[in-house]
Amino acid sequence: MDDRAARLRQARLAAGFETAAAAAEAHGWNRNTYASNENGNAPYSWRRARDYASAFGVRPDWLYDAQGAAVGAGAASDTGQPRPAPVIGRVGADPGGEVLLAGGQAPPEFAPLPPGGTERAVALRVTGHSMRGLADDGALIYFEDQRTPPSPDMLGQVVVVELDTGEVLVKRLLRGGAPGRFDLESVAGPTRRDARLRWAAHITAIVPPWQARRILIQGD
């Protein structure tokens, strides 16, 4: 069992779940997927680490790559340095603004926190040229992964959203044709009409490609 899987098992036991099956059932996870994550057969992604950490009451950065203490508050590591923001996926390879979330197999990437960033800060790497005018190929797009519903001040802004289908997109948020529905305008591409959203998040910073290349940190 690798260290990441061992920390997951440790967190599950500390949370009072005697078996992996019991934890999966309590939180609505697929039993086989969770078991494979815990026994090390399928390394889990940063996004899934966030879900597991929230369920078990530990810090996601500790669970994912052993940064800092297992529990505690604040965005500083044990060395007093700010924890970096994980790069959770790619965006811009197609004109639809779809985010391809990072899987568990590739080495993780991290970037320094943007101004005003918190421990919930995450980043996306721009791939290709379909987002030209907003962010060029190789740029970093930061947002706070707070998973809250769209707010009125997001209307007319380019934001990160998750649809009720599970798709994560970077789109301009517009009012839809019915309450609780939104139109999603692409930087380049067709507009999606009357979408239902799980959450939306403001973009907090965009780092140009030349600077992104300097600041990216490769994980293990």
Task: Write a structural description.
This protein has 220 residues and is an alpha+beta fold. The protein folds into two domains: 3-65, 434 Repressor (Amino-terminal Domain); 85-218, Umud Fragment, subunit A, CATH 2.10.109.10. Helix content is 24%, strand content 27%. It has helices at residues 3-14, 20-27, 31-39, 46-56, 60-65, 209-215, and strands at residues 85-91, 99-101, 109-111, 121-126, 140-144, 158-163, 168-175, 182-185, 192-195, 197-207, 217-218. Strands 1, 2, 3, 4, 5, 6, 7, 8, 9, 10 and 11 form an eleven-stranded mixed beta sheet that branches. Helix 2 packs across helix 3 (31-39). The longest helix is centred in the first third of the chain and has 12 residues, at 3-14. It is globular and about 50 Å long.
List keywords for this structure.
single chain; 220 residues; alpha+beta; 434 Repressor (Amino-terminal Domain); Umud Fragment, subunit A; Peptidase S24; LexA/Signal_pep-like_sf; Peptidase_S24_S26A/B/C
